[in-house]
Amino acid sequence: VYLVSEKRQVFKLGYAVGYPEHATTVELQLSDGVLGRVVSTQQPLVIGDATADPNYVSIVPNMHATLAVPLIHKSKAIGVLNLLSHERDRYSERDVAILRQFAAHVASALVNARLFAQERHDAEAFETLAEVGREMTGVLDLDRLLARIAQLGRRLVDYRTFGILLLNQSSGELEIKLAVQYGEQVHLPTVPVGEGLVGYAAERREVVYAPDVSKDPRYIQVLEDVRSELVIPMLVKDRCVGVFDLESPDLDAFSKRDIEILTLLASQAAVAIENARLYAQLSANEARIERELQFAQRVQAALLPPHLPKKVKGVDLAVSF
């Protein structure tokens, strides 16, 4: 069973019997070989001796006859059922009719299974978002909070590089506060607002997605092998406090669902970051006031005599402060 990946425009082996182990990692272009012809024409194809076909792509050795039937759903090919045999001229028109009818049921079942899996995945994602929201509100140390956001983000969306940049209002620059690449922290430069995909997202306060960074003139290369980039602004009301920056070595690596879920996460993160900043500011003010009170206490105490004057005959002395 070969399945079509629309995003990557390739065939991937979904399930196989009798195939070699390495075949599970094989990917074929949608235009390749017998499978490509079946998908483009949306018609079954029988070949008595595939080795004589110049377009045949051999994955299982010593095969001759092949029967391929498209999996069609709503007039679109979502995959191919492919039978192979050691014998030449093994498959007949009767086999085609049987497999074609079977393929119609398989296509419907695959679509239903995918919808069920997607709904379950979405439900788990929103449960995770709720958990993330509860957890983030309890973290008031900014560094700990940012590290936790990156960890929790991995549970929602797979990424190669994840960065959190916060906006410095005085300098007008986005300062990298956390950058994680394959689980390891890396260092990235600051980015002026308005420059690159990151700066553009912060300035316009909108999501920016480049499925192919080589075709986006706004892209500024920092890391090697980046093929797609997604930037999500973190907004408190209409004010941008920073951005999420996700990069991948794959083309068009992020889906509409990824964008929706990360936008929700960014909203929660923005509020949590503001709370952490306010807490840090309040703590700093309290510490400053405490230092000033201690200083005033020392100054006032220094104005007092260190001890009472010597007793004077006929005079009683007392002090009140």
List keywords for this structure.
seven-stranded antiparallel beta sheet, single chain, alpha+beta, 13 strands, six-stranded antiparallel beta sheet, 321 residues, 5 helices, elongated
Would you give an account of this structure?
By secondary structure, the chain is α+β, with helices and mostly antiparallel strands. The chain has helices at 33-41, 93-136, 142-156, 196-204, 256-303, and strands at 2-5, 10-13, 27-29, 45-47, 65-73, 76-85, 161-168, 173-181, 184-185, 191-192, 208-210, 228-236, 239-248. The strands form 2 sheets. Strands 7, 8, 9, 10, 11, 12 and 13 form a 7-stranded antiparallel sheet that branches. α3 (142-156) packs antiparallel against α5. The model has no long low-confidence stretch (mean pLDDT 86).
